[in-house]
Amino acid sequence: MNRTTSALLLALASLCAYPSAVVAEEGPNYTRTEDVVYGRKHGMALTMDVIAPKDDANGAAIVWMVSGGWFSAHEAINPAYVAEFLKRGYTVFAVVHGSQPRFTIPEAVADVNRAVRYVRHHAADYHVDPARIGVTGASAGGHLSLMLGCAGSIGNPLAKDPVDRESSRVQAVACFFPPTDFFNYGKPGERALGEGVLQGFKAPFDFKEQDPKDKVFRPVDAEKRDEIGRQISPITHASADDPPTLIFHGDADNLVPIQQAEMIVEKLKEAGVEAKLVVKPGAGHGWKDVVKDNAVLADWFDQHLKPKTDKP
User: Fold this and answer.
1) How confident is the model at residue 36 (pLDDT cuts 50, 70, 90)?
2) Residue whose C-alpha is closest to residue 178's, from 201, 227, 144
3) Are residues 167 and 199 in contact, defined by beta-carbon separation less than 8 angstroms?
4) C-alpha span between 255 and 176 (Å, rounded)
5) What is the pLDDT of residues 127-143, one digit of tens each?
6) Of 105, 127, 213, 279, which residue is 20 to 30 A from 9 by alpha carbon distance?
């Protein structure tokens, strides 16, 4: 993948409008700890940046999916993007997942689940409540946010690593223009597993499995491919125990049709989950002042990540 393509994928999620510093930095109203290792795979480290307000922290966490086109990079982390959350007192965990073209969507989903487990396990270290975790992101980041909201899971109590014993469930979702159903993409029966509208994104859908005999990774067959496609579609997992969910989407989006947001909001409501769609008239896949809408997302988190109070 060349630099032009990488930059485009990042822009799709409205995450890379500004460059970020490479070294650890301290802003006027926050501290930033870079490259916190939340996991390891294939001999590489998975990292996140922890951006915390200096004053008036509210004890809640927002896990930010740094992803556009399932391309994820540390360079896309800009604290200015989450300034509204920091102002409200949220500690933000900016998660970089295993990126396409090297890694596929199921691998990215596994990474972000691990990230939430890490945040929950180390909640005391970061002065956040493990029962008050929200998630946000745009485009692919929105998709990963919904995968956590709809398909986050309890931990494995028998896991050797204590982090993996933690739950990856979140308590609120607020995201922008997410893909939600790769088999009904824009209209019933329209496939988008790296095809159709998403034919320019083949790498994240290049599903492979390791042959147990020679250890070589080979493409899965058509049946397995569809099975994986259903598993990475958030709508497959929408159910009554999902957290309150807010989605912003432009009604002129040609890359991720607004129908994707409409379908999952409808399904969540049918299941009894509080869900809301905010339509941006005339907006495509992202809009110039998208950062301003983080104020509405922050309102949503304020409402749904309040401290729990004991009732008499």
Assistant:
1) very high
2) 144
3) no
4) 13
5) 999 999 999 999 999 99
6) 279
